[in-house]
Design a protein that fits this description.
The complex is a heterodimer of chains A (about 170) and B (about 625). With about 170 residues, chain A is α/β, with parallel strands linked by helices. Chain A has a single domain, classed as P-loop containing nucleotide triphosphate hydrolases (Rossmann fold, 3-Layer(aba) Sandwich). Helices cover about 35% and strands about 25% of the residues of chain A. In chain A, the strands form two sheets. A four-stranded parallel beta sheet of chain A has the order 1-4-5-6, with helices on both faces. In chain A, strands 2-3-7 form a three-stranded mixed beta sheet. Chain A is globular and about 35 Å long. In chain A, about 45% of the residues are buried. With about 625 residues, chain B is an alpha+beta fold. Chain B folds into five domains: about 90 residues, no CATH class; about 130 residues, Beta-Lactamase (2-Layer Sandwich); about 110 residues, no CATH class; about 60 residues, Histidine-containing Protein, Chain: A, CATH 3.30.1340; about 120 residues, 60s Ribosomal Protein L30, Chain: A (2-Layer Sandwich). Helix content of chain B is about 55%, strand content about 15%. In chain B, the strands form four sheets. In chain B, strands 1, 2, 3, 4, 5 and 6 form a six-stranded antiparallel beta sheet that branches. In chain B, strands 10, 11, 12 and 13 form a four-stranded mixed beta sheet that branches. In chain B, helix 16 links the parallel strand 11 and strand 12. The chains are: A alpha/beta (about 170), B alpha+beta (about 625).
Chain lengths: ~170, ~625
């Protein structure tokens, strides 16, 4: 899970899994790990979700956190256009990883419950659509598009056939 | 493969050969040429080698990717080659290995030093604790070296969980845990463990080849052994000894050896790592604190001594406790007894006081009764004062004041103490009493009756008897109607006489009384009988009869008392008898001569002062 601060990464993960570790790990370690087991296209798999602290002045996303990832969800807050810029720089960071061009990336356009306040331009949406494996509108608040978001990434991972079981997103 | 000789033997003769050549050309054309060229290449080692050299590395890579046989085939050769190389020129291999060996050796030495320091540090810490002396004592007692004892006491630990984590992805490859160990989801723990390692490596700029070796929280340690492809992490409760790190290193090596291929090609499937699960389980070692065994006899002796001490102390305590209990019981009983005594004493005193009070009360009531019995006095109220009593009531002016007749009475000042008399403080209001005694007294005061006039009151009837003058009789008539408590007047027994005759009679009576009193009848010595012929007797009879007549006329009554006397010659007893006999004889004689018996009485005592043999007269007129 990547994205600017307070775009809703943690809320999305919370909506999706029952967490074992406290949220304070974000501020201390900069990352919190959760697990979700699911079946996609008849294939059982385990998603290890690394919820990485928001990219801001205090927390820079560490390349070590990205190392070894199988797929990424980059979250954008539709109401803040600068989160799009952060998302794009994160996207480049992912692609720059060794074997990075094979990593499926899904963009989550979060806060879809207040879509009327969105500040994203048509061009931005076009860029996202072209660069990503999938672009999904979501709302952690209304539990809208959350399952779809994670299962879409899982589907991508199965399709790339890079992995059989156990995926780090 | 064909040898050179075989080839020449199969070749045909010259002309035949030419024909064959032509036939071949016709049949095979250019293909035959290339076939010959191919055979030449194979038969010529130089050319054959050149051909194989072109493909040998690709072929090896291909085979290595198919199975493990290449390693098996090549390892003896490589080992031989390495041995030969070292034999020929050790320097060359040393030079080649130098960049690898240097850091490896340095790391190994650092590790050993770190362990030594840790042990030393633990020793230092523990030598300052109270355990230190105990261990010294144990060492001296058992004859072991001190370090051995310390080692036995300190090495207590248990490996609770072992994680095998893929280095690149941080995914869990395999997890083993000791029974009863509490573990959260190992997948997530594995992820967080990786994140922590990354965090530390990123946060504190350390050398690139350095890695986190140990985490410690209280008695819990996480030992991390990092290999090229996987990380082995052991969660240890207690003090992990140095050889545990060694065990982890060995396990790590075995895993890398056995699973090298799987580790390199790991793509998220952890299933194949089931094979090395037993290696992880081997790491779940533990060492319990081993007690230094004491010789049984010593322990027995100690136990016996301890038991007897406990028994002795117990007995002491018990008996002391019993004594204490008995003492307490006795004290309690004594206290209860004294309390009871005190209570009884108090009760007795109270009883005494109550009795004294009752007595005082009774006495006081008697006094009040006495006062109330007195005519003309009525007690209305009484109060007890500090010094006695306050008595309020009514007092007729003619009545006697209680001060003059009430007996003294002691005052109760304490329990049974009566030192002083009670003070009676009277407060009387004057009143006119209708009591008969007071009525009579008032009538006497107002009417001034004559001596032979008698006033009495009976059932509110004022009775006047005797003799009275007419004037007095008139006065009575006016007075009695104003007398309180009198409803009628009875004068049936009152005789009204002329004032002169009454006065005369009174004078004659007085004269007769003195005459009779002066006379005495004398007896002879030892004689008690009366001489009937004596002058004295007849004269005395005449006088008495005259007195009786006059007194009756005046409404008065007469009483004559005779007293017998004796001289002092005889004994007192005889004289008394004689005196009494003389009085009785004279009385009998007087009665025989006509004097009413009721008039003549005998004196109760003989006149002891008179030293004569006689009987004397004493006349009373009323």
């Amino acid at each position: 899970m990547l994205g600017s601060f307070s775009v809703g990464k943690t809320s999305l993960v919370k909506q999706y899994v029952e967490s074992v570790f406290s949220d304070k790990y974000h501020t201390t370690l900069g990352v919190k790990v959760d697990k979700k087991q699911l079946t996609v296209h008849g294939q059982a798999m385990t998603l290890m979700l690394w919820d990485i602290a928001g990219d801001d002045d205090f927390f820079k996303v560490r390349p070590t956190h990205l190392r070894g990832m199988a797929g990424a969800i980059i979250v954008i807050d539709g109401t803040r256009s600068n989160t799009f810029d952060v998302a794009m720089s994160l996207y480049k960071m992912v692609r720059a990883l060794p074997d990075g061009h094979n990593i499926p990336v899904v963009f989550a356009l979060n806060k879809a419950d207040i879509k009327h306040q969105w500040m994203l331009s048509e061009e931005m949406l076009l860029v996202l659509k072209e660069t990503s494996s999938a672009m999904i509108e979501s709302s952690a608040k209304d539990d809208f598009g959350v399952d779809e978001l994670f299962s879409s990434l899982a589907g991508e991972l199965v399709l790339t056939s890079k992995l059989n079981k156990g995926v780090r997103a | 493969m064909y040898s050179e000789n075989n080839t020449s033997a199969l070749l045909p003769s010259e002309p035949q050969a030419h024909d064959m050549q032509r036939l071949r050309d016709l049949l095979l054309g250019k293909d035959y040429e290339s076939l010959l060229e191919l055979r030449r290449q194979i038969n010529t080692p130089q050319l054959h080698s050149e051909q194989i050299a072109k493909v040998v590395s690709e072929a090896l890579r291909l085979r290595a990717s198919q199975d493990e046989t290449l390693s098996e085939v090549l390892s003896p050769t490589i080992e031989n080659a390495l041995s030969r190389s070292i034999e020929n020129d050790p320097q060359r291999l040393a030079n080649a290995l130098y960049p690898v060996m240097g850091p490896a050796i340095r790391q190994s030495i650092q590790e050993a030093l770190a362990q030594t320091f840790e042990t030393f540090n633990q020793l230092l810490e523990q030598s300052l604790s109270p355990k230190f002396l105990g261990w010294r004592f144990d060492a001296w007692r058992t004859g072991r070296s001190y370090s051995e004892v310390v080692l036995l006491n300190t090495l207590e630990y248990q490996v609770e969980q072992v994680f095998l984590i893929h280095s690149d992805t941080g995914l869990l490859l395999r997890h083993a845990e000791a029974p009863h160990a509490i573990s959260k989801d190992p997948d997530m723990v594995s992820g967080m463990l990786t994140a922590i390692q990354d965090f530390i490596a990123d946060s504190f700029s350390v050398q690139s080849d350095a890695s986190l070796k140990r985490l410690r929280l209280g008695e819990l340690s996480v030992l991390i052994e990092r290999g090229p492809r996987a990380v082995l992490a052991a969660v240890v409760r207690g003090n992990p000894p140095g050889d545990l790190v060694e065990l982890l290193t060995e396990t790590q090596e075995s895993i890398h050896q056995q699973m090298a291929h799987t580790l390199v090609n790991y793509a998220g499937d952890s299933e194949p790592f089931v094979r090395i699960h037993h290696l992880l389980e081997d790491c779940l070692v533990s060492q319990r604190q081993q007690r230094v065994k004491t010789k049984p006899w010593l322990a027995g002796l100690l136990l016996l001594a301890l038991l007897s001490l406990v028994a002795y102390l117990g007995y002491q305590y018990h008996s002391a406790h019993q004594d204490k209990l008995a003492l307490e019981q006795w004290e309690q009983q004594a206290a209860v007894q004294s309390l009871q005594d005190e209570l009884e004493q108090k009760k007795k005193l109270q009883q005494l006081a109550a009795q004294a009070e009752r007595e005082q009360e009774q006495t006081f009531r008697q006094r009040i009764k006495q006062i109330n019995a007195e005519p003309g006095v009525v007690v209305v109220n009484t109060y007890q004062t500090e010094k006695g009593y306050q008595i309020e009531g009514l007092l007729d002016p003619l009545a006697r004041h209680p001060e003059t007749f009430v007996e003294r009475m002691p005052l109760l000042t304490g329990a049974g103490v009566r030192d002083v008399d009670a003070v009676f403080d009277y407060s009387f209001q004057p009143y006119v009493s209708a009591e008969p005694a007071m009525v009579i007294k008032r009538a006497h005061l107002v009417l001034q009756p004559a001596k032979n006039t008698v006033l009495t009151l009976k059932n509110n009837v004022f009775i006047v008897s005797g003799v009275a003058e007419q004037d007095w009789r008139n006065k009575l008539e006016t007075y009695w109607r104003n007398m309180p408590g009198v409803t009628a007047l009875d004068v049936s027994r009152l005789r009204v006489a002329a004032p002169e005759s009454v006065r005369e009679h009174t004078t004659a009576i007085s004269r007769l009384v003195s005459t009779i009193n002066r006379a005495k009848y004398l007896f002879g010595a030892g004689k008690t009988d009366v001489d009937e012929t004596s002058v004295h007797l007849s004269q005395q009879v005449i006088n008495i009869k005259e007195l009786l007549r006059l007194a009756t006329a005046n409404g008065q009554e007469v009483r004559i008392v005779l007293t017998g006397n004796a001289d002092q010659s005889g004994s007192v007893r005889v004289n008394e008898q004689v005196s009494a006999k003389r009085a009785v004889s004279l009385r009998r004689s007087l009665i025989e001569r006509g004097i009413p018996a009721a008039v003549i009485a005998l004196a109760k005592k003989r006149g002891s002062e008179v030293n004569e043999r006689s009987v004397t007269y004493r006349v009373q007129v009323y």
